[in-house]
Amino acid sequence: DTGVSQDPRHKITKRGQNVTFRCDPISEHNRLYWYRQTLGQGPEFLTYFQNEAQLEKSRLLSDRFSAERPKGSFSTLEIQRTEQGDSAMYLCASSKGNSNEKLFFGSGTQLSVL
Amino acid sequence: KNEVEQSPQNLTAQEGEFITINCSYSVGISALHWLQQHPGGGIVSLFMLSSGKKKHGRLIATINIQEKHSSLHITASHPRDSAVYICAVRPHFGNEKLTFGTGTRLTIIP
Fold first, then answer.
1. What does the pLDDT look like over B48-107, one tens digit per residue?
2. Which chain A residues have any C-beta within 8 angstroms of a chain B C-beta?
3. Rounded-to-integer distance, Cα A69 and Cα A5, Å
């Protein structure tokens, strides 16, 4: 399977715990995006990488959130001290180097904070 | 008011009907995406448009840049078309942030 893969598919955690999600984009894709989606809403942009550089970050991304893409391949999104409001689907997408390239999405990680 | 508005929010139709889903946006854009999301979260990109019209199989997408409006049409609809269809815009060249609509839930009844 050469699509975008995300791990884990589901994560249940207690409030206050830290969680980390991983995204493996399509191998030749330079751009990687993280989005968050809550029930009944469209996805909201969190951050994006061009290779290993984090070039844009939403104001939605509080200081409890950090994302990395250390070698320009896979990316991780960490949430520290989780809150119930962090419960959502976290989606990763990738594309080639052009702004107007088609996006390819992973299946997402569903986070539930109890 | 959201930057991207979709209508209708929900649509139920009989198999075989011609389907139209609308998307209006309030900002200048460099591109508009139509996406399909099935239960469980998986999102598939259907089209990316910056002008005119695109067709793929039974799906047709059109965009009118002057009127800030796009439509997604499905001909000869089928139950497997049942999904949430999401419109997303890229506000201006160089800005990577896509702004999404809340989606249209389509249900096709056999």
1. 998 999 999 999 999 999 999 999 999 999 999 999 999 999 887 556 778 899 999 999
2. 31, 33, 37, 40-45, 48, 55-56, 58, 89, 91, 93, 99-105, 107-108, 110
3. 15
